[in-house]
Design a protein that fits this description.
By secondary structure, the protein is an alpha+beta fold. About 30% of the residues lie in helices and about 20% in strands. The chain contains 7 helices and 9 strands. Strands 1-2-3-4-5 form a 5-stranded mixed β-sheet. Strands 6-7-8-9 form a 4-stranded antiparallel β-sheet. It is globular.
Length: about 250
């Protein structure tokens, strides 16, 4: 198969989303997500999106890389490779990998991180053949909301409330003029405690990014409150991917 590798443009994003979703069920980004990531990313962070393009402007693969913790270790990168299963075996992934490595060499990378589903043996083998090793396993869990009964957790919620901790959504907190500042302060405390990697941008930049994120559901964003302080959160995204419970 003949194809060329080039820098992606926003015009490529619909095809890139289709490729990602075809390659793995874990790919949940939308075109809006990709556009927002471009707008929110600092110009000081090393990051690029690459595509493999065949005839008639048809994309047959993509790769991305970016510094994973630029403030703490500028030589550590996240890398991702996506090729539709029907097109694997044509050397697309190999050339994308070679291109990414060639572009990263000037930055002297010390660590590359990525992820892969264990039920994709060809993708696992691709990474293992290039020296990647497993350092963490995650278990994916699903909840059938058509049969879920929240009433069974009422006793636990009442117990927590008796201890002075209340759970409210961001929608319910809309009348709190300090809501956004308290969210930011909670993340600052997590960072100071070593529970959150990297540095937070200034509040004005942080809240602007948060408000623009297209998949955040304010009615599904839950905050744990003790007195006047926000101490934890859990959130649901419109894509169906749920965030984990975080304690401040």
């Amino acid at each position: 198969m003949e194809f060329t590798i080039r820098l992606a443009t926003q015009a490529d994003y619909p095809q890139m989303v289709a490729i990602g979703r075809n390659a793995t069920a874990d790919y949940v980004k939308s075109v809006d997500d990709l556009v927002l990531s471009d707008q929110a990313r600092s110009t000081n962070i090393v990051a690029r999106k690459l595509v493999a393009e065949a005839a008639n402007h048809l994309l047959v693969g993509m790769a991305t890389y970016s510094q994973s913790a630029p403030a703490d270790d500028p030589h550590q990168f996240n890398v991702w490779f996506f090729v539709p299963p029907a097109l694997q075996g044509n050397g697309i992934g190999k050339r994308l990998y070679a291109q990414v490595m060639a572009e990263l060499m000037p930055y002297q990378p010390s660590r590359l991180e990525t992820g892969v589903r264990s039920d994709l043996p060809r993708a696992v083998r691709f990474l293992e053949e290039r020296g990647f090793v497993t350092v963490n396993n995650e278990c994916e869990m699903h909840l059938d909301l058509t049969t879920f009964n929240p009433d069974r957790f009422q006793a636990e919620r009442q117990r927590v409330e008796r201890e002075g901790i209340h759970l409210k959504t961001l929608d319910e907190l809309s009348d709190d003029p300090d809501r956004d500042a308290k969210l930011y302060e909670m993340h600052l405390r997590r960072q100071a405690a070593g529970m959150e990697a990297g540095g937070l941008p200034p509040f004005s930049e942080w809240i602007e990014r948060f408000r623009q994120w297209p998949r955040v559901l304010l009615g599904g964003f839950c905050v744990a409150i003790a007195g006047e302080q926000y101490i934890g959160q859990s959130n649901a995204l419109a894509s169906g991917m749920f965030g984990e419970l975080e304690y401040g």
